[in-house]
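<purpose> Linking amino acid order to shape
<body> The protein record starts here
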Amino acid sequence: MASEHEIYRRYLDAVGLHGQAAAAAAGLHPTEWHALSALDLSGRLTSGELAAACGLTTSATTRLVDRLERAGRVRRVADPADRRRVLIEGVPTDVADIVGPARELVGEVFARYTPEQLETLFDYFTRAAPAYRAATAEIRERRSVGGAG
């Protein structure tokens, strides 16, 4: 039988592969897919906020936004509170169609849990996401300090 560590790694690998497949189905690079997800979850973001959400430099984010804008996936809009500031917003797309199979299949998995178990799962998701973001930042920081990147 697989260890808990192996089971968890297989789960993470499956989620990562799903993200790659979804991006490819949308005709996007995984980073572009992630940027659209960040915009969908957050609404309008500044380029700096989008850079932080995607773990990119500001110059890489500018190129990312340029590509997504040319593809009709995002648009730049003036901030209504400060017209000197530009916000990036997603353009409605077919993302729901692409991720539909995962939502359906994972929904079937969730249906097997009690409300209390689901509460625990979603508590984990809520707490694990920032932990993974912090670990990602640490990995990137070590890589940049170590000169490997």
User: Anything to note?
Assistant: The chain has six helices and two strands.
